[in-house]
Design brief:
Blueprint: H1 2-7, H2 10-35, H3 37-59, E1 66-71, E2 75-77, E3 82-89, E4 99-104, H4 107-112, E5 116-121, E6 128-135, E7 141-153, E8 160-174, H5 184-190, E9 202-212, H6 224-230, E10 234-240, E11 245-250, H7 258-274, E12 278-283, E13 291-294, H8 297-308, H9 318-324, H10 326-329, E14 334-340, H11 345-354, E15 360-366, H12 372-384, E16 387-392
Parallel strand pairs: 2-8, 11-12, 11-14, 14-15, 15-16
Antiparallel strand pairs: 1-3, 3-6, 4-5, 4-7, 7-8, 9-10, 12-13
Helix pairs in contact: 2-3, 7-8, 9-11, 11-12
InterPro entries: DUF58
Organism: Peribacillus glennii
Protein name: DUF58 domain-containing protein
């Protein structure tokens, strides 16, 4: 019998319920007419208001309700909380015994919270009301809210009225980040392996040659001896600083602590941006896109947005990426910084083959001591001139980020 009910169309079920309600009203009336007496008529008049309410509810246009959703903020950081307010308004004061408001949460929020947020309210004669719930400990990502479903019914449980409202909304949760406090960051800059804030300045203590005068050259740059010989103003040519830019690569291979890698990459971007360094970015996953080397807050926000969408869905391991793509995407004068949890001999060999003069640094994150294979890969990296820094995931908690070994 239940299987037969499930196969019936929804409209046919509703019509059968309506016919059943009319039959009950007619039956109670006939019973009162033939039986007579106070009890039979009392039963009829007691049942009549519920039947009338159910009949009106049958035609009540719940789909004409006006629904709105408001987020306390549309951009947040991982771990933050956001309040969601749903406003419901209608044109009439028809009494509603109850109203169930269902909000299906985005896919990522379903993993850490209940799949559907359900709130029961009792509006009765209210024309408008609002309800608020809080999303705690938000996970990183771009979360898209979709529809809201309303459901109500009568006292007898005969009729259920439902209406779905398509209200798209986006919540962008950036990765959490902290100030990098380890001394090796400054040491990395001093060695010319990660760029400089003075990108266009020259090292005036080392003269590499002479050239013709150009507007903007300082008077102290003029080489008077060569100027006298050539009878033309000649200025000194100075050596450029060792490196200028940084190109960051996030390894999106599946990893158990992928969120820690993303968080550390965000902390790194935040720190080097404060130093005025220009940087580019690339994710190795299926939806990765190259962000050309630039500087400033806009570039930082673009990279943070890319990090918010990062997923551990790379089709190829990081060593395959280094062997195929890095020479195309990285400028020859830019330092290469790789965030990964895979430190293997293949990774080091691929990084060494793709190395064309620019400094290469691998920031290797994991939560366990180095294995023998990783120790061997670390020794190979030193021999190949690749800078490897091992960061223990446990040190990222509490806003601290320290390099444990290198």
């Amino acid at each position: 019998m239940k299987k037969l009910k499930n196969k019936l169309p929804t409209k046919l079920k509703t019509c059968l319920k309506m016919a059943g309600l009319l039959f009950l009203v007619a039956l109670s009336f006939v019973f009162a007419m033939f039986q007579g007496g106070f009890v039979s008529w009392f039963l009829f008049y007691s049942f009549l208001p519920f039947a009338i309410y159910s009949s009106i509810l049958f035609f009540y246009p719940i789909h004409k309700f006006q629904i709105g959703r408001n987020l306390s903020k549309r951009e947040a950081r991982a771990g933050d909380r956001v309040e969601v307010t749903i406003k419901v308004s209608r044109k009439t004061r028809f009494p509603l015994f109850f109203l169930l408001v269902e909000q299906k949460l985005p896919q990522k929020l379903e993993r850490s919270m209940a799949g559907t947020k359900k709130i029961m309210v009792f509006p009765w004669f209210k024309r408008s009301f609002s309800l608020t719930y809080t999303l705690e400990n938000l996970p990183r990502g771009e979360h898209s809210f979709e529809g809201i479903r309303l459901k109500t019914g009568d006292f007898l449980g005969l009729f259920d009225k439902e209406a779905a409202f398509d209200i798209p909304e986006r919540l962008l949760v950036y990765p959490s980040y902290s100030e990098l406090t380890y001394k090796q960051l400054d040491h990395l800059f001093d060695q010319g392996q990660a760029g400089t804030a003075n990108r266009l300045q020259r090292e005036h203590s080392i003269v590499s040659g002479v050239r013709g005068y150009q507007p903007g050259d300082q008077l102290s740059w003029i080489n008077w001896k060569v100027t006298a010989k050539k009878n033309d103003i000649m200025t000194k040519e100075f050596e450029e600083m060792k490196s200028h830019d940084v190109f960051l690569v996030l390894d999106e291979s599946p990893a158990g602590h992928f969120e820690a890698i993303v968080s550390y990459a965000a902390s790194f971007v935040h720190s080097i941006n404060k130093k005025g360094i220009q940087f580019g970015f690339y994710r190795t996953g299926m939806n990765g896109e190259v962000l050309a080397i630039r500087g400033g807050e806009l570039q930082k926000q673009n990279i943070f947005y890319s990090l918010a969408k990062a997923e551990p869905n790379a089709e190829y391991p990081i060593d395959s990426f280094l062997g195929r793509n890095v020479l195309v995407t990285v400028a020859s004068n830019a330092s290469l910084v790789i965030f990964t949890s895979d430190l293997s001999m293949k990774t080091i060999e691929s990084a060494a083959r793709s190395k064309t003069g620019q400094a290469t640094t691998i920031l290797f994150l994991k939560n366990n001591p180095l294995s023998r294979e990783e120790q061997a890969a670390l020794e190979l990296a030193k021999a190949k001139g690749i800078n490897v820094k091992y960061v223990n995931e446990g040190t990222l908690e509490g806003g601290k980020s320290e390099v444990i070994a290198q």
